[in-house]
Write a structure and sequence with these properties.
This protein has 15 helices and 14 strands. It is α/β, with parallel strands linked by helices and 423 residues long. The protein starts with 6 loop residues before the first helix and ends with a helix.
């Protein structure tokens, strides 16, 4: 496969290293009260829980062991001996991040010997995290040096309270993820293409876990997969995506164990739920490597006034949050690129995302300014856009066919809600 990826797939991956896999993995985060996600009810996880379910509603925590609701403080007490605590998230759900903070605060009160591990930051940026925790950087400098909106690209405000709590209490934060170019290399060419130095970052891949393959294939085969992925060579596409998923999990599991062993602290791992479901992702890789005691907590989205059924094997603890019509913070997805010999950013393709599309961007537009400020860097441009909340506007100047035009990005939630209803 490494030498014969289809032209369509190869072209798509070259345009965006992570967009296709992200689209697939985010399917499992989009539960609604009408259509039950199959990935949440698979016969996977610990043997005693297979074929058994719990019905989840928002605002409540459930124990896999009992199959019933559990008091928050009892859950914390039960996790006391865990050295690795995995907290799964839907990245753009603020309520889930509030739950994560609440759990971190409770664990810190239980014992301040705590550390935090992040999927959201790659290992090459660890020194920036250290400088943040030590108090050397203010928030704006931190976002620039960590290249937040290039490395991660979800609004920082989802995570702000967690970063602030870590800084205030000098809780070490560890980067867990591999640089994107290495994940892309594994996906396109296979693990054997990595150099000796690169293999120090991404450990060997165990691709033979059949239960994990079933989970990822269930997600891959969802009817909501983007149409461009439903062509020929689906098996080759799946294998490429699966390699990338395992590379993420192996790398993050290894780094979480390293953080626990080098510091002697308990480590709270924050990552997308797709990396933790049924104890088959990074948590499985960490356990296989270290046998450290661990616990996994997963958040699931539930339509307001509704309930959903999930497998008791999904995680040690599951909690429900209300599924919102639109995210807490606007996301404006403008595909941008750099052109040789030009300092400015250029729109790489006419946007399809609701807010960017409504603003009137067109392929080939040259960005002159955003919010009244020059933005020659992708991270800087996204920082400016992310600084505005719902109901606000961001003025932009672009050069199109030799003419300077004024565009306005309007943070209108109704545009997003209408766009979601169409999907």
């Amino acid at each position: 496969m490494e030498k014969n990826v289809t032209g369509l797939f190869q072209k798509a991956m070259k345009k965006s290293v992570f967009c296709l896999l992200s689209a697939v993995m985010f399917i499992l985060m989009a539960q609604t009260g009408v259509s039950q996600d199959r990935s949440l009810t698979l016969p996977l996880g610990p043997e005693p829980y297979r074929g058994k379910y719990v019905t989840v509603e928002s605002g409540q925590v459930y124990s896999a062991r009992s199959g019933r609701p559990i008091e928050f403080q009892k859950m914390i007490a039960e996790m006391k001996k865990a050295r690795l605590i995995h907290l799964g998230e839907t990245h753009d759900n603020l309520e889930m991040h509030d739950w994560q903070l609440r759990i971190i605060q409770a664990l810190y009160r239980q014992s301040p010997e705590l550390a935090i591990g992040l999927e959201q930051v790659t290992v090459d940026l660890q020194p920036v995290l250290d400088r943040w925790v030590s108090g050397e950087l203010d928030e704006e400098s931190f976002l620039r040096e960590i290249k937040w909106y290039v490395t991660w690209n979800f609004n920082y405000n989802y995570y702000k309270k967690i970063f602030d709590f870590a800084r205030e209490n000098r809780i070490p934060i560890f980067a867990l993820n591999a640089p994107r170019n290495l994940i892309s290399k594994v996906r396109l060419q296979g693990y054997q293409a990595l150099t000796e130095e690169e293999r120090k970052i991404i450990p060997p891949l165990d691709l033979e876990n059949q239960e994990h393959r079933l989970l990822i294939r269930t997600i891959f085969e969802s009817e909501e997969i983007p149409p461009q992925m439903k062509g020929t060579n689906l098996q080759e596409m799946f294998e490429a995506l699966y390699r990338a998923q395992v590379a993420w999990d192996e790398t993050m599991g290894k780094n979480a164990v390293r953080a626990a062993e080098t510091t002697g602290r308990r480590v709270v791992v924050l990552a997308g739920s797709g990396h933790m479901l049924y104890g088959l992702g990074l948590n499985y890789r960490a356990w296989k490597l270290s046998r450290l005691p661990q616990a996994t907590v997963i958040g699931v989205q539930v339509a307001e006034g509704s309930r959903i059924k999930v497998s008791r094997g999904l995680a040690d603890y599951v909690y429900g949050v209300i599924e919102r019509d639109y995210p807490a913070f606007p996301a404006v997805n403008v595909p941008l690129k750099k052109v040789e010999g030009l300092q400015n950013l250029v729109v790489a393709a006419t946007p399809q995302e609701a807010l960017a599309k409504a603003a009137g961007f067109q392929k080939g537009d040259v960005i002159l300014s955003a919010g009244g400020r020059p933005a020659f860097d992708l991270n800087e441009f996204r920082m400016i856009i992310a600084g505005s909340g719902w109901g606000e506007e961001v003025p932009l100047k672009v050069l199109r066919n030799g003419e300077v035009l004024n565009l306005t990005v309007k943070m209108d939630p109704e545009l997003v809600k209408r766009d979601r209803k169409k999907q």
